[in-house]
Amino acid sequence: MSYPESLKYTKDHEWIRVEGDEAFIGITEFAQKELGDIVFIEVETVDETLDIEEVFGSIEAVKTVSDLFMPLSGKVLEFNEALESTPEIINSDPYGKGWIVKIKLTKPEEVNDLYDAKGYKELVEA
Q1: For the chain, how many structural domains are there in total?
Q2: Which residues of the chain have pLDDT under 50?
Q3: In which domain, by residue range, is 64 found?
Q4: What's the CA gap between 92 and 115, in Å, rounded?
Q5: Which end of the chain is more exposed for a tag (fewer CB within 10 A), N or C?
Q6: Which residues pair with 14 in a beta bridge?
């Protein structure tokens, strides 16, 4: 299992790649393995400003449907359109082409409360 050092992580198994005042959000390799084959992603919150922990969408796998929670407060700028036709990208490339949304941070200081790679690895492998 990989835990890229350049990312931040949440207890809900989401990763965050911060780029200035924007961030890309996806689910971790651990999460996609737990869910199994991903068949559908729904995000209807583009252009909405959401607080940390609010639901921004859902992810459907063969086994289950799970809510996706905002790891940081922000405005949802973009949904990864590639996931509409090929949601399984999340299974094959969760940290790259499998990103789900891009947001504009409204409270950048919240990044300090996220796990680094080492902390997330300890959480998952505990």
Answers
A1: 1
A2: none
A3: 8-114
A4: 23
A5: C
A6: 27
Question: Any idea what DSSP says for residue 115?
Answer: B
pLDDT (tens digit per residue) in 51-79: 999 999 999 999 899 999 999 999 999 99
The DSSP H or E segment spanning 54 is none
d(CA 5, CA 110): 18
CATH number at 36 reads 2.40.50.100
Q: Side chain identity at 97, as an amino acid letter?
A: K
Q: 63 Cβ partners below 8 Å, 6+ apart?
A: 35, 36
Residue 42: the pLDDT is: 97
Per the document, the length of the chain is 126
The pTM (predicted TM-score) of the whole model is 0.95
pLDDT at 126: 85
State the Cα–Cα distance between residues 49 and 74, nearest whole angstrom.
Answer: 5
